[in-house]
Amino acid sequence: MDRTENIERIFQDLRRVVHALELYSKDVNARFGLTAPQLWALWELERGGGMTLGTLARALQLHPSTVVGVLDRLVDKDLASREPDPQDRRRIRIRILPKGRALLKRAPHPAQGRLVHGLQAMSESQVTSLRRALATLVRVMEAEDLEARFFFSED
Amino acid sequence: MDRTENIERIFQDLRRVVHALELYSKDVNARFGLTAPQLWALWELERGGGMTLGTLARALQLHPSTVVGVLDRLVDKDLASREPDPQDRRRIRIRILPKGRALLKRAPHPAQGRLVHGLQAMSESQVTSLRRALATLVRVMEAEDLEARFFFSED
DNA sequence: TGATGAATATTGGAACACAAATGATTTGAG
DNA sequence: CTCAAATCATTTGTGTTCCAATATTCATCA
C-alpha cells in the first residue's frame, strides 16, 4: 500500500470514527436524555467544582458561544445552575446540581463509551502506537493552523 | 504510561484532529466560498458522474437529509444542478456544472488539506501504523454500533 | 478621577448532522 | 390488475459548532 493510499484510508477512517462518536452521542441522548457534549460538560463541572463559562469552555475545548447553548439545556433540565458571581459581575458561577450528580453516577464515562470499548479491544502496543501517531498528527496540524492564522492576519 | 492514560489522550487527540478539520473547513470557506462538506460533495460529483441524492449521501457517508442542505447551497452558487429523473420520477439527477468543475481545479483536494500535510510530515512507518490502528478501531466501533442498534430494536 | 481598553457572557446568523414524518412514485404480491 | 409496501427526496425539529457583534463590568494609567 503506497503513501497516498494510506492517507486516503486514514482520512476515511477518521471520518468513520467521528461518525461513530456522533452516533454514540445520539444513543446516549436516547437513553439518558442528554447528548455527549452535555454529559461531558456535566462531568467537567463535577471535576472542576464551581466554574465560569470561560473555564468550562476551555475545559471542553469549545467556543464560549457554543457552551452557552449546552449550558442552557443543562439548566433547563435542572442538572446545573447559573448564578451571578458577586465578586466579578461579568462572570457567572456554574454548578452541578444534585440531579446532575445523580445522573453522572449511572451515565457512561463522558464522550467515551464506544471509543473506549473499541480501544480496549485492541492490544496494548496497538493502543500505544495509535496514541503516538495521533499525537504527532495533532502537533503538525495545530502547527499548521498557527501558520495559517499568521498568514491570513498578514493580508 | 498506563492504558487508561493512553485512552484518555487518544480521545483528546481525536477531538483535536476533528477540531482542526473544522477550522480547516472555515479556512477553505473563507478562501473559496464553500465549506469542506460542499467541496467534498462537489468532488464526489465530479468523480461519480450523474448521481442521485441517495448515492451522493452514501458516497459522503452522510444522512440524506443532511445532503439536501449541502446540495441546496451548491445549486445556489451555480456549482451543481438538480434535474428530475425522467425514468424514475422519485429521483433527481445531480450534476456538477462548469463553474463547479472550474472551482475544483483551483481548490484543495477535498476535506484533506491540513490533514494531508500533517500526515506527509510523518514517517512512512508511522503513517502505516496509524492506518492499521485506526482500521482496527473503526472495525470494533462499527461492530459495537451494529450491536447497539440490534439491542435497541429488540426493546 | 476618568477615559480607554480588556475581559466576560450573550445573541444572531450560517452551516452541518441526525431522526422522524410527509408526499410522491415505483414495485411487488396476491 | 390492484392495492399495500418499499423507495426516494424533502421538510421539520433538535442539537452542535463557529464567528462577529453587543452589552456589561472590571482594570489600568494618564
Automatic annotation (TrEMBL), chains A, B:
<dbReference type="InterPro" id="IPR039422">
    <property type="entry name" value="MarR/SlyA-like"/>
</dbReference>
<feature type="domain" description="HTH marR-type">
    <location>
        <begin position="7"/>
        <end position="139"/>
    </location>
</feature>
<dbReference type="InterPro" id="IPR036388">
    <property type="entry name" value="WH-like_DNA-bd_sf"/>
</dbReference>
<protein>
    <submittedName>
        <fullName>MarR family transcriptional regulator</fullName>
    </submittedName>
</protein>
<dbReference type="InterPro" id="IPR000835">
    <property type="entry name" value="HTH_MarR-typ"/>
</dbReference>
<dbReference type="Pfam" id="PF12802">
    <property type="entry name" value="MarR_2"/>
</dbReference>
<dbReference type="InterPro" id="IPR036390">
    <property type="entry name" value="WH_DNA-bd_sf"/>
</dbReference>
